[in-house]
Amino acid sequence: MAGSILRRFYRKLEGFLRLGLEYLRRSHLAELSPAEVSARLGEPGFHVFDCNLESLWKKSHIPGAVYLGFDRFGPEMLPSDKQATLVFYCLCHLCLASNMAARRAQSFGYKRVRIMPKGTMGWRAAGFPLVPASNAGGLDGDKAASAVSGSR
Fold first, then answer.
1. N or C: more exposed end of the chain, with fewer CB within 10 A?
2. pTM, whole model, 2 decimals?
């Protein structure tokens, strides 16, 4: 009895997650490849944000990326320039954290919001380096933005 209830629950949960994944994938966020992000690292007004779990960010992330998480940040954690290009990434195309963070940034009025759906897995597969965190957590506000653009 309990087993059949659990199976039905997991089937419904799976269907719900598929719908959510499909919705987010069709939401038309502009995408950048790892090569495109790598080529633009260090450009003024180009900021990269890691939306993985903080423990994953501490182990390895794109050089200069700022840890942001995906749902508990406010506009003070982003650059003050609403015309800046903001790139969000997470682990891979199956992870939706970057999509959710990008949507949140758009809700704050940012216009040039992008995602890198291949995430850290795609970054590594493309042969680009990942680095460990040099501090215990993310940064905030324009300090984070200047650290991202100044650390490359």
1. N
2. 0.74
